[in-house]
Design a protein that fits this description.
alpha/beta, 5-stranded parallel sheet, 5 strands, 11% strand
């Protein structure tokens, strides 16, 4: 009997690779996506394409109106998404695209879902190399959340499950992520990575997410899709 795992899936490059890795490791995968009223909610269509292509035992999409809290250019239309930042600028600040406590919230809901499923494994595609300066993508945050998870649930307290937060991409460059996914047969044309898509649903080509994606394909010597 295969072990179950919850995989956080946005529909972007990183989370799609994470899903492929979990499947390759033999897990029975349950994908979890969020409509957090993000300006790039078109990524949820990509998540559905990815699940259809790669497969999953389950796919849950939760509505999470983080726009009611605001505080981020991804959830507040009055705030502009930064464009054409250099790599140094991306690494030097926490940008306005940071969504307050997003990964803490996402992982908390993934933990609840995992407990109900009887799954001890949760995958998240955070990355500490080519990233936009988000504090909730760092190894220290993941380690702290894993420790908390094993104190916070009935399944762990009663000794039936010990939770592991898997971050297989955390030390990879975008190029390494792309090479890894392609070796597993990932079709990155199914994915979407843009914080500020056009009204027609095309990537803007200038936000941090677009620039990091372009950089990754260039360094992987692969055609950008």
């Amino acid at each position: 009997m295969r072990r179950k795992a919850v995989v956080l899936l946005s529909g972007g490059l990183d989370s799609t690779t994470c899903l492929a890795l979990a499947l390759d490791a033999g897990f029975e995968v349950y994908a979890l996506s969020f409509n957090y009223h993000q300006r790039h909610k078109i990524e949820l269509e990509a998540a559905q394409r990815v699940v259809a292509a790669l497969g999953a035992a389950g796919c849950l999409n939760l509505d999470l109106p983080l726009d009611a809290i605001g505080g981020s250019a991804l959830t507040d239309a009055s705030l502009a998404v930064p464009k054409d930042a250099t790599a140094e600028e991306m690494q030097s600040r926490i940008p306005i695209t940071y969504v307050p406590a997003r990964n803490t919230i996402f992982l908390s809901l993934a933990l609840g879902y995992a407990e109900v499923l009887g799954a001890s494994d949760i995958f998240i595609g955070v990355n500490a190399l080519d990233y936009s300066g988000y504090p909730d993508c760092r190894p220290a945050f993941i380690a702290a959340f894993e420790s908390m998870a094993n104190l916070a649930t009935k399944q762990s307290v009663e000794g039936r499950l010990r939770y592991t937060i898997h971050t297989p991409l955390i030390s990879m460059s975008k190029a390494q992520i792309i090479r890894t996914g392609r070796a597993l047969g990932v079709d990155y044309s199914l994915t979407f990575s843009c914080y500020d898509p056009t009204p027609a649903g095309h990537a803007c080509g200038h936000c941090d997410s677009c620039l990091l994606r372009q950089k990754g394909f260039a360094e992987a010597d692969a055609a950008s899709v």
